[in-house]
Amino acid sequence: MKKLLSASVVLPMLVWAVAAGTAEASYCGAWRRCCCRRACCCAAETCCPQQCCTVMKTCTEVVYEQRQTTCYRTCYEAVQEQKTVECVRYVPETHYRQCAYTVCKPVWETQMRSVTETVCRPVWETRTQECRYTVCRPVYEQRERDVCHTVCKPVKYVKTVEVCSGHWETREVPACPPATCAPATCAPAAWAPATCAPVQTCRVWVPEVRQQQIECVKYVPETVVQKVPYTVCRMVPEQRVETQQYRVCRMVPEEVTRQIPCQVCRMVAEQRVQQVPYTVCRPERYQTTVPCVRYVAKQVPYTATYCVPKVVCREVPVTVCCPMPSCCGR
């Protein structure tokens, strides 16, 4: 099936490529120059109009024909069947057995016992102590120091500079060179066309440089010393004595005896018998019918359609117009 499909795809492509090349080479010959006969020149020495002729050209066309073929494919059909199988199932059964065990039974009794313990009794006492400590007392003193700072002092001086200036002058300059003098280029419209102005009056800026003295100010730094008072704090240590009272707790041990009731547990052994159930699984065989599926292979025919290319030739009229050559030897 795959081979048929590949052949039906590749073969039309090959035929189309061949037909395209043939059609390009001989499509009615429209791209070629036709051989037309020459015409005579006209009396007015102009060329005659172009000649057009109708020719029959053979053109090829690819036509696809559909064909059918019978193919076979393998299919699997499910067949339902009943099958008898042997199975085993377990049936639970309950049995009982006697178990003897010993149990310790608690018996609680109240008893009194003497407990002697040491107790610390607190005793408070008041005491006095002297505390010596050092205190820093501030002492302020007035002092002076020299502070230097810079002051810019203005100083005037005279400086000579060059100043660019100028003035306007009225001068006469030639209006145009003598060789190119023409009424249309250098003469005004009011002048005569045969004359040309020899000179032209215009204003010209004449630059000049002159020296000028100006006053300038420059700042000269000067150092000034100034007395500035300030306060200095000096810490002087000083010894002081202070009396403080404090309380001291002293623990005095004492022996105390007291009666404390307590519970005493005594374990008494006791024999008991108990019925304990247990489960036993008994195997039991039986037969059952289960459905099964079996797949049977078979060949199924089907019809496949494929295209076969066919080249058909036919005559087509084509009108070809040829340009006429130059008439009368032109």
How many beta-strand runs?
A: 2
Strand order in the sheet with the most strands: 1-2
**What coarse outline follows from CA principal-axis ratios?**
flat
Order of helices and strands: HEHE
Topology:
Elements: H1 2-26, E1 51-173, H2 183-186, E2 200-322
Antiparallel strand pairs: 1-2
Structural commentary:
The chain is flat. The chain has helices spanning 2-26, 183-186; strands at residues 51-173, 200-322. The chain contains two helices and two strands; from the N terminus they run αβαβ. By secondary structure, it is mainly beta. The chain has one domain (2-171, 207-322). The protein starts with a helix and ends in an 8-residue tail after the last strand. The protein has a two-stranded antiparallel sheet.
Write a brief caption for the model.
With 330 residues, the protein is mostly beta strands.
Descriptive tags:
flat; disordered N terminus; mainly beta; 330 residues
